[in-house]
Amino acid sequence: MIRSKIQKRGKSLLKKRKKEYLISMDNNLINKQFIDPKSDTFEKVVFLYDSAIKELKTKIEILQDEMKLFYGYEPIESISTRVKSPESILKKLNTKGYEPTYENLFEKINDVAGVRIVCNFKKDVYKIAETIENFQDIRVLSKKDYLKTPKKSGYRSYHLVVSIPVSFSEGTMYVKVEIQIRTIGMNFWASLEHKLKYKNDNISKGDSKSLEKYAKVINSIDDGMFTIYDKMADNNDFLYIEAADDEPNLKKFKFKL
Q1: Res. 214: pLDDT tops 90
Q2: 141: which residues sit within 8 A by CB, 6+ positions away?
């Protein structure tokens, strides 16, 4: 009986902790409070997201250095980060039909903090994604593979939403961060597509079809470039152990000096 109560209490506590992506620091943050971008509270919120990005970026940079040192290959071309502007946050909450409170910001918006990783090839994308998913101190909240199933627009990328533990003087908080992982070609297309649509919300159906077609062309180029690399690469390269196309099952990294 006592054991059962303890187990139930433990499950309840775990469920509560999973929801606490951001928690109050000495009551400085009040979840029900309306967002005021000019307030000290909002500045503290941005600080928390910035801190999570720093933690994650450091992990990824260490991973890149490890692969370069142990395997002589750098799968990551670039890493960029950003925190959404106050205007973008409020607009997204409004679009989703939520009140502009901190509680809704923490719980309903997954991409306030974002990290974009640009890789050389598709198999780099999957290897980096797999490695991040296996980080012991990171909680994977959701993942979407837009490489296998592109968006209607032609957009391709691998998305992860994770919560990152960040240590402060008052304790550790889990902060949500969205990670986008894509190839150089995918990033080229996505960046220009965003700029074109940002400047013209009423883009024609013909132009949208053209963008979709160009996305397919770039995807074909991605595949062709990797075919050339694959012929030249060392067969022992751990990044490119052959796997089924529908479910990459890349070899686990074994740390040996």
Answers
A1: yes
A2: 110, 161, 162, 163, 176
